[in-house]
UniProtKB/TrEMBL annotation:
Compositional bias of kind Basic and acidic residues: 200-218
Name under which the protein is recorded: Outer membrane murein-binding lipoprotein Lpp
Residues of the signal peptide: 1-20
Start and end residues of each stretch annotated as Disordered: 194-218
Keywords from the named record: Lipoprotein, Signal
Length: 218
């Protein structure tokens, strides 16, 4: 259902990151606010530390994450990028729950189980989670995100047996639009030390060179 390659699965997750940020500076110790839900700097830092340790020991995750043009990719070469990627996914998990509600779909435990099974067939749910930038214990949350995207796109008319079907492509566009609108309504605020959202590129842009200033929120 989710495609025949790990690259497709990871790309689908990345496409879910169409977030629109709001202004404001979260209070000290906060990495991001997603509505009333707070992601702390401690939580984010722990996830990144756990991810680095686990990623080093997982050759499958390394192979998935490696740039084909540079097989000798070095872990931690861009630690700020690692943190931004992890924070983006932590936000996505929260937004996706609201997206499912807005689309009127229920993401049952059975749906998540099937998403885990699909990811396992594509290289392993835990390895894919590591390749995506989070530790293994976030694998089920990642699977829930994948399951949510699948369910919502199906509601919009997607046919996953034919990804080139115009209806499937339209459903993907509708998913991105709904994700963006939902994120807008949730008043997402990111600590400026981590950067800002660029919904056009589906990623967190790096922070400006202001990290040493006292208005970083930390």
């Amino acid at each position: 259902m989710f495609g025949k390659s790990v690259k497709v699965a990871v790309a689908a997750v990345a496409a879910a990151g169409a977030l629109a940020g709001c202004g404001g500076t979260p209070k000290a110790g906060t990495a991001a606010l997603v509505g009333d839900d707070r992601i702390t700097v401690t939580e984010l830092s722990q996830d990144v530390r756990d991810w680095r340790e686990q990623f080093r020991a997982d050759p499958v995750a390394n192979e998935m994450r490696a740039n084909p043009g540079n097989p000798a990719q070095q872990l931690g070469a861009d630690s700020e990028s690692d943190v931004r990627g992890a924070l983006t996914l932590l936000i996505n998990f929260r937004v996706a729950r609201e997206v499912a509600e807005a689309a009127g779909v229920e993401i049952t435990g059975g749906r998540v189980d099937r998403a885990v099974e699909s990811l396992n067939r594509q290289g392993g749910a835990e390895s894919i989670t590591l390749a995506s930038g989070l530790p293994r214990d976030r694998a089920r949350e990642l699977a829930r995100l994948v399951a949510t995207q699948s369910a919502v796109m199906e509601r919009f008319g997607a046919d996953f047996t034919d990804r080139m079907n115009p209806a499937t492509q339209r459903a993907g566009q509708q998913w991105n639009e709904l994700f963006r609108r939902t994120a807008d309504g949730m008043e997402i605020e990111v600590n400026p030390r981590y950067g800002t959202y660029d919904p056009g590129k589906f990623e967190i842009d790096p922070a400006e060179q202001r990290l040493s200033r006292p208005d970083s929120g930390i």
